Amino acid sequence: MNSNQKYLIAVVGPTAIGKTALSIKLANHFKTQILSADSRQFFKEMQIGTAAPTATELASAPHHFIHHKSITDNYSVGSFEKDAIQCLNNLFTKHQVAVMVGGSGLYVDAVTKGLDYFPDVDQSIREKLNTTLETNGLEHLQNQLKQLDEVSYNTIAIENPHRVIRALEVSIGTGKPYSSFLNKEKNRRDFKTITVGLTTDREIIYDRINQRVDIMVNEGLLDEVKNLIPFKHLNALNTVGYKELFNYFDGTWELDFAISEIKKNSRRFAKRQLTWFKRNENTLWFDYKTELEHIIKTINTNLN
Questions:
Q1: Which family does it belong to (predicted)?
Q2: 32 annotated ligand binder
């Protein structure tokens, strides 16, 4: 291993696959520290529903970016990128290797590759688009995007109103297609990334997710969500495991149905995670039951 070269080992994969456990073993092996790139585990009020590391796990290796923010804080992926790079620069003064773990693909990419740059856009454009969404519906905005930026229309998650509005506000505000800002030369990184992916058969992933949701409920997820009802309008809480139970507490859904929806939406989330992570052709994929020694051996081959 080149003594001047710094390495970031990024552990990725779908929810409930065992990323936390592997990252701790790797951090202990390389005598280093862990950065979390799980955007839901940043928030200290959301512990059970985000499957954040337990007190025992947190004590077994130094962690960064776990419960360091409140749901009332405005914390963007851009802020995380800046904070994470600063954290890595500090770690790399003492360690040659650092570990990053998380299921939020955009946040992982922000650290390993850098974010696409978008110019600032007048806030009023988004407000107008939100009003248009309410009065004329999503299809109207989709058609508008098709006229302004057909590339984005064909590539973004067109059923997601947030994505459509984001692409439109940039296209309108800059006079250039949203897609023209994507995949430009990103910030160079002073470290090399080795990405380790955990996966297994889809049925096993889904089974693990269902079991995890049951465990969360037994550990007190309902009380956690109940205490957060006054904040349910916040963006941080518009997420799987919380929004479904808000529907239970306001009387819209029965509890059994809400829990089954958490399982279903978590399975869908896992599917999207795998699609995102599979785009990186350099990822070293392992079955979640692979022996640690084999994973470390493969990493060491890449370090050298």
A1: Belongs to the IPP transferase family.
A2: no
Residue listed under structure tokens 């800046």: 82
The domain boundary, picked from 181, 205, 226, lies at 181
241 annotated as ligand-binding? no
State yes or no: 15 annotated in a binding site.
yes
Tokens of 94: 């003492």
**Residue 251 is labelled as binding a ligand:** no
Q: Are residues 60 and 150 in the same domain?
A: no
16 annotated ligand-binding residue = yes
In this structure, the answer to whether residues 23 and 73 fall within a common structural domain is yes
> Is 53 within any annotated ligand binding site?
no
Q: Determine if residue 18 is labeled as part of a ligand binding site.
A: yes
Determine the Cα angle at 103 with ends 238 and 120, to 5°: 60
* Beta strands, E only, 132-266: 191-199
Amino acid occupying residue 227: N
| Total count of domains within the chain | 2
Let me know: does 179 contact 118? Beta carbons within 8 Å.
no
pTM of structure: 0.82
Per-residue pLDDT of the chain (304 residues; tens, 9 = 90+): 667 899 999 999 999 999 999 999 999 999 999 999 999 999 999 999 999 999 999 999 999 999 999 999 989 888 999 999 999 999 999 999 999 999 999 999 999 998 877 778 888 999 999 999 999 999 999 999 999 999 999 888 788 888 899 999 999 999 999 988 876 666 689 999 999 999 999 999 999 999 999 999 999 999 999 999 999 999 899 999 999 999 999 999 999 999 999 999 999 999 999 999 998 999 999 999 999 999 999 999 998 8
